[in-house]
Amino acid sequence: MKNKLLNVAALFGSTGTLICCVLPAVVATIAGGVAVGALISVFPWIIPLSQHKVWLFLVAGVLIGLNGILLFSKKEKSCPVDGDGCEVTGDYSKKMFWVSVIIYGIGFSFSYLLVPILRLLD
């Protein structure tokens, strides 16, 4: 139960980083500043997420890290259910973990690496 809750929290945290930082950057790149203004007028909650992006990335990173520790540090696999139930949930947890890591990496790249790279190329 704890591992499932941590999986879901890590996925939502990494998705929050994607919404706060990647979405406005991609919209600005493709459609320009006017489109970002329209996006923010429709979804005003993006502004507080962007203002607290350091905390958002920190909490999401800690959740993903804890999830990875719990997921991959199991020495013995004990399953209270007979059959393939544990294998299916274990595979699902690993897939959710890697999806979270990928989403977090994309968000981190757009938030903290894109501008310095573009400045180096300029």
Could you give a short description of this structure?
The protein is mainly α and 122 residues long.
Write the layout of secondary structure elements.
Layout: H1 2-31, H2 33-42, H3 46-51, H4 53-72, H5 85-121
Structure description:
With 122 residues, this protein is mainly alpha-helical. The protein has one domain. It has 5 helices and no strands. It is elongated, with a radius of gyration of 18 Å. The N and C termini lie far apart (50 Å). The mean pLDDT is 77.
Beta-strand percent range: under 5%
Can you tell me the number of structural domains? 1
Poorly predicted regions are none
The overall pLDDT, averaged over residues, is 77
Quickly list its features:
single chain; 122 residues; mainly alpha
